[in-house]
Amino acid sequence: MDPHLPGEAAGANTRHEVPSVRTDSLIINTGSGIFTDPALRAAAREAVDGSALVDSIFSGYADPGKGLFGPAVSWAADKRVEVTGRAKAATTAQVRSRTKGKVLRLAAFTNRAELPEAASVLQQQLEQAGFTVKQDVREYTQMEADLLAGKYDALVFSRVVLLDTGDAVAYLASDYKSDGVYNIARLKDAKVDQAIKSAAEEGDVTKRQQKIMAAEAQILRTDAVVPLVHERVVQGIATDVEGVLLDPR
Asked: Solute-binding protein family domain: which residues (predicted)?
């Protein structure tokens, strides 16, 4: 359409792009399979490049992953904590040697159309790092039990990081505490548990946010999750409507 036509101008005036609280990540199974080896998890983390997905898979409607919390969580960037203590990544030769005869089982579900496409890109990246990868792509309801039971080595996952309460602690406790009800990464790490517990017990808002970001750094240290992109959404608002707040959720 001609950019000067009225229809296009109206469309531009009614479309509003806003960061969402949805982060897409590679969740790594730390409890069983090949990724019980921290050096292999580190190799996978170094191999995966979420920025390659921004234009190709998300058509520009995403930001490269900076952590578990993206631009929609307005306070996260200024309080982000440097990640230290990560394992040294295995070299390509070491990956091939340590995984000889083993296949990296990479899962993605079809409920969000972009995830299988992202999985294909990640498969290529992981294979360049020395892994042998096999995808399993199904509807989410068909694989949830297997995901929670640790039947896969990694999952391309899309997750809302501020749940119903809008409190990030609920997400961290559910997904990354040793007893978390949605701990697909099967992570059991005392430092992570303590960091999340400390955040949950903090009543001061600013200190709570700081402790949430400290917990994020502890989780990222384990390479149980590799943030890929933070999704954006487009919201339509008629030009004669005033006072609308763009909602990242």
From this structure: 14-180
Does 5 fall in a domain?
Answer: no
Q: How far apart are CA 222 and CA 14, in angstroms?
A: 43
Is 243 part of a structural domain of the chain? no
Global model pTM greater than 0.85: yes
Tokens for 56?
């190709």
Strand runs labelled E in the chain: 15-28, 62-64, 104-109, 133-138, 154-160, 225-236
> Number of structural domains, the chain?
1
- Please give the angle made by the CA atoms of 41, 47 and 52, to the nearest 5 degrees: 135
Beta-ladder partners of 15:
236
Is residue 91 situated within a structural domain?
A: yes
Q: Residue 57: which CATH number?
A: 3.10.105.10
pLDDT by residue for the chain (249 residues), tens only, comes to 444 444 444 466 777 777 788 899 999 999 999 999 999 999 999 999 999 999 999 888 889 999 999 998 989 999 999 999 999 999 999 999 999 999 999 999 999 889 999 999 999 999 999 999 999 999 999 999 999 999 999 999 999 988 767 789 999 999 999 999 999 999 999 999 999 999 999 999 999 999 999 999 999 999 999 999 999 877 677 877 777 776 656
Domain hosting residue 225, numbered range: 18-231
